[in-house]
Amino acid sequence: MVEKLLIIYYINNRNYYKDYGGKSMSKLYDALNEQMNFELESAYIYATMAAYLDEQNMKGMTHYIDEQVKEEIEHAERIKNFLQETGYGIKYRPLDPGDGKFDSINNVFEKALAHEKVVTSRIHDLVKQAREEEDQRVLNLLAWFVDEQIEEEDTFGVLVERLERINGQWNGLYILDKELASR
């Protein structure tokens, strides 16, 4: 079987890596593109959480989660920029916001923590794949995400713990709501 020819285009001082036929060369870069889409989907999921919190008249919590929406979009942009700088053609897919149903304020933050654990797992899978492909550029990009996920899980873990201690008591919820407004 004839090996595929690797064609390297130098356009605007960038390396565009494509295999013969114009198909994507790397499953790793396809997986990064999917992670970019997942980060956008995460923003959409957090937006449904913010809508629920707003319906509960928890303006500080709404603000906090709205800021999380922006952060997820920034994460997607970071990956998108990397992919574009390395010559990868970005592909978008439809986003799924989930069902947007929450049983309580606690449930919002429990689902946020569970979601961040999924993100962490996905990032770790990407790191493993980048190591297998020996792609240092991707490893450098992902190092930031590994650190970010430590912070995300810790932050939401603390909020879930605090909400469990508050135990649905409105005075505690209002105090936490005021604190979260300062993000």
Q: What would you say this structure looks like, in words?
A:
The protein is mainly alpha-helical and 183 residues long. It has five helices and two strands, in the order ββααααα. A two-stranded antiparallel sheet has the order 1-2. The radius of gyration is 20 Å and the shape is elongated.
Q: What's the quick description here?
A:
With 183 residues, the protein is mainly alpha-helical. It is 69% helix and 7% strand.
Strand content: 5-15%
- CA-based shape: elongated
User: Spans with pLDDT under 50 lasting ≥5 residues?
Assistant: 1-24
Largest sheet, in brief, is: 2 strands, antiparallel
Secondary structure: helix percent: 55-70%
Structural class: mainly alpha
Q: How many angstroms does the end-to-end distance come to?
A: 58 Å
Features:
elongated; disordered N terminus; mainly alpha; 183 residues; 7% strand
